[in-house]
Write a structure and sequence with these properties.
Length: 206
């Protein structure tokens, strides 16, 4: 979930799930879906268009594509407070790159980075997976990682978040960093962000 853009409020999923405007206009985005089989307490938004995208990867080892679709939500003024409360500022943080192996993790004063994912596998209510940011990613471009989060089949589109500790022992600040696109694979916002800005510019948005 993004803060408001020139195209309204935005959210993200995989391109292999929603490929184009025709599919987007048939989609629904459901917030606060916490209990399997129950829509009580949820809020549903329609989608108006795809504002940025890149195609799905061709096979498990392909890292030439990013497999994402940024979707614009249909909303009204009365939805603003609700959406603002749930918005997350996705960061193209260089700290992912700076702490992507054991030596540099030590330089950051950490032994590992906590990594979590929120997903709705096969349309079920929210699921939470917890693991560690991989300490060694040199076989892959930094835009792509292998992870060992216990995600269920059908979890495509889940956001993976990592945390750096602030003062005190608790991890309080979670940063959206990756988009899950295949079992054990995710793509970094470090790569998606520039593509999004490029597409906004070509569409005349500022």
């Amino acid at each position: 979930m993004f803060p408001k853009s020139p195209y309204g409020w935005l959210t993200i999923t995989n391109n292999h799930l929603i490929k184009n405007d025709e599919e987007a206009k048939l989609a629904e985005v459901i917030f606060d879906f916490e209990v399997d089989g129950s829509k009580e307490g949820t809020k549903i938004f329609q989608v108006s268009r795809v504002v940025s995208k890149d195609f799905r990867t061709d096979h498990p080892e392909d890292v030439t594509h990013l497999d994402f679709s940024i979707l614009a939500l249909k909303s009204s003024g009365e939805d603003e407070a609700y959406l603002e409360e749930r918005a997350v500022m996705f960061e193209e943080t260089a700290r992912v790159n700076a702490c992507s192996n054991n030596e540099l993790l030590g330089a950051c004063g950490l032994t590992f980075l906590p990594l979590i994912a929120f997903s709705h596998p096969r349309g079920l209510a929210k699921r939470l997976s917890i693991g560690k940011y991989p300490s060694n990613t040199e076989k892959y471009p930094i835009a792509h990682i292998k992870h060992q989060l216990p995600t269920t089949k059908g979890s495509s589109g889940a956001n993976l978040l990592f945390s750096f500790p602030d003062s005190g022992p608790k991890f309080r600040h979670w940063l959206a960093a990756f988009l899950h696109y295949r079992h054990g694979r995710a793509v970094a916002w470090q790569a998606i962000g520039p593509k999004l800005r490029e597409d906004f510019s070509s569409l005349g948005a500022r």
